[in-house]
Amino acid sequence: MTARIVPILPETIAIAAEILSEGGLVAMPTETVYGLAADAANPAAVARIYEAKGRPRFNPLIAHVSSWAMAERQAEFSGLARALGEAFWPGPLTMVLPSATGSRVSDLARAGLDTVALRWPRHSAAQALIEAFGGPLVAPSANRSGHVSPTTAEHVAADLGDRIDLILDGGPCSVGLESTIIGFENGEAVLLRPGGLETSSISAKIGRAVHARSQTDAINAPGQLKSHYAPRARLRLDVTEPAEGEGYICFGPGQRGGLNLSPKGDLAEAAANLFSMLRALDQSHTTIAAGPVPDEGLGEAINDRLRRAAVRDPD
Ligand code: TXA
Ligand code: MG
């Protein structure tokens, strides 16, 4: 059985919400990447997510909400966390917060941690689905573990089509990179994963620095498996002259050949194209060379994903 790919309509949202309330799995578009959604409160449904993705272990998942009221039932917000949410929600920001007593997010979805990762996505279809379902939905990126995150419904179908119940097709994701994950330590914001929201916009908005995560840190953001985003092909970084027969992914004006993330040098456009271009080259080549991308703004997250994709999966 292959999951049906359906357009976003009031009827398909209602069907999707029904599937979720019966413990099923629905792929939903968000502005970052497609998520594989399940009822956060249902441990059996959450277990099916890990099974479908082939996750090596129970990583904690992001719980997606569609209102402040729903967010506040799941987690405790400090003043800083609230200010961040007010500035950037709905949007590509995830915050790791102390779990609230009475939170609906199951222990399994939190991997037993006493914190919960929360995001209020901006995509109208994700919002409509959470609303129709009436509670938080956990959703990791809708790809098999270790694969590149999906930015179209077709990517989801190729990876998980035979393992899930329904795919909502909202077209290509506008941001194209996973959300930026922020944690809190001693009252300060800490960057756990660079992503679709620029770190500099966060510090500018809140008027204080976002700290880098210390290497020794016990906070577990396991998505930080080094090879998390690995394609099958070998990937070489910072290549200006690709070798004969290599797939080439590059950035900016004046580049010849290969796939250009953004010929006009726009990092937002590059982010939106990154995963689909990596997938395309992965299908046609055994080695991919990546040209340099400036390490500023969204380039920080793009380079993070490229570095991870270049590490061979240790398992
Ligand atoms: O843009 C996104 O964030 C997408 C869309 C679907 O929302 N989701 C996504 O989920 O990228 P996933 O499961 O692929 O990555 C979630 C990350 C993981 O690195 C996980 O370890 C971290 O969030 N995480 C979740 N709960 C956490 C917690 N309580 N403490 C620390 N890290 C946590
Ligand atoms: Mg992922």
Explain what this protein looks like in three dimensions:
The protein has 315 residues and is α/β, with parallel strands linked by helices. The chain has 2 domains: 4-212, DHBP synthase (Alpha-Beta Complex), CATH 3.90.870.10; 234-310, Rossmann fold, CATH 3.40.50. The chain has 9 helices and 15 strands. The chain has helices spanning 10-21, 43-53, 68-74, 79-88, 124-133, 153-160, 199-206, 267-284, 299-309; strands at residues 4-7, 26-28, 35-39, 62-64, 93-98, 115-119, 137-138, 166-169, 180-185, 188-193, 211-212, 234-236, 247-250, 259-260, 287-290. It has an 11-stranded mixed β-sheet, sandwiched between helices. Strands 12-15-13-14 form a 4-stranded parallel β-sheet, with helices on one face. Helix 1 (10-21) packs across helix 5.
Task: Itemize the secondary structure elements and their pairings.
Elements: E1 4-7, H1 10-21, E2 26-28, E3 35-39, H2 43-53, E4 62-64, H3 68-74, H4 79-88, E5 93-98, E6 115-119, H5 124-133, E7 137-138, H6 153-160, E8 166-169, E9 180-185, E10 188-193, H7 199-206, E11 211-212, E12 234-236, E13 247-250, E14 259-260, H8 267-284, E15 287-290, H9 299-309
Parallel strand pairs: 1-8, 2-8, 4-6, 5-9, 10-11, 12-15, 13-14, 13-15
Antiparallel strand pairs: 2-3, 3-7, 4-7, 5-6, 9-10
Helix pairs in contact: 1-5
Strand percentage lies at 15-25%
What strand order characterises the main sheet? 1-8-2-3-7-4-6-5-9-10-11
CATH architecture of the largest domain: Alpha-Beta Complex
Q: How many strands, which pairing sense, and closed or not: the largest β-sheet?
A: 11 strands, mixed
Number of strands: 15
Chemical compounds bound to the protein = threonylcarbamoyladenylate, magnesium ion
CATH topology annotation of the largest domain: DHBP synthase
Mean pLDDT, all residues: 92
Our count of helices gives 9
Provide the CATH top-level class of the largest domain. Answer: Alpha Beta
